Amino acid sequence: MLEDLIKEELVKSMKERDVLRVSTLRMINASIKDLEISRRPSNSNQIKDEDIIQILSKMIKQRREAAVTFEKGGRKDLQDKENEEIKIIEGFMPNQLSDEETHEIVNDILNENDFKEMRDMGSAMSILKEKFLGKMNLGLASKIVKEKLEG
Question: What's the rounded Cα separation, in Å, for the pair 33 and 1?
Answer without folding.
Answer: 15
